[in-house]
Amino acid sequence: MTTPVRVVRGARTDAGARPPGFRDLFLQLEYVRLVRRGVQDLRTRGRLLQYLVGTDLKRTHADTVMGQVWWLIDPFFSMAIYAILVTVVFQRSIPDAPLFLFAAILPWQWFQTSLIDATTSVTARGNLIRQIQFPKLVLPAASTIAGTITFGFGLLSLAVLYLVYPSRLSPWLLALPVIAVVQYVFTLALAVLFSGINAFYRDVQNLLRHVVRIWFYASPAIYSVAALKGSVFGIALALNPFTYLLTSYRNVAYYGQAPDWVGLASVLLISVVLLGFSIWVFKRIETGFAKIL
User: Fold this and answer.
1) Do 88 and 62 touch, CB atoms closer than 8 A?
2) 42 CA to centre of own chain
3) Is residue 9 part of a domain?
4) At what angle do helices 176-198 and 97-119 cross, to 10 degrees?
5) Which is more confident, 224 or 242?
6) Which of 69, 101, 250, 291 could serve as a FRET partner for 123 with CA atoms 20 to 30 Å apart?
């Protein structure tokens, strides 16, 4: 006697199973899986990010009398120092030199502070990492966001300068957020990468301070790209992402011109690729943080 076979509605036999498509295979790749997990960590940990950003902001100038007012004063001090260096020591004549310098020094300070703080963000939270399970990727992200907020306060100092140089105002200042977004992605990519590596090799944080200092003078912050056009050093400038970032800031804030759209698009593309790579590296080594910190 033959036993009847019961057919379950909706069930699939192995022979009729649909083979995995390209999208399924792509999502199973380790690189894509880890990058997706990293992006999800940042998207779903909003409250933790908000807390860490607030902590970083409170820690900055916490023991000073003037407190957060230093966010407005610091860029002016840097501008004054470089203005004396350029106009008095080097005796270069630059019209409205303070604004010329400030337009580049302000975003550079944002990059420098954010990158150095983010690089030590993992090692500085060793006790927290050993005690609580949470996605460590939020640590460099929080430091970068805190630096971005500080940059926003620094823009108030830029507004004060326009009271002295009102003729430099132009509608192109509305493009500042676009340039800032490109710089943010670039800074976040480096911050994530270096913070992860620095957890294992503390030499990174020491070496980075010197590299950033050299990088500043290799970028058109206290001089213009046109001043070195045609020189051998011009080739190095062409490979420097901050050539296009600082030139774009100066175009909209000083010259009243459009930013370097092509240069910004190139930097953004490189930054997105670098950010994906950085998240992948960070997520691969993240599990070892608690053991070495």
Assistant:
1) no
2) 15
3) no
4) 30
5) 242
6) 69
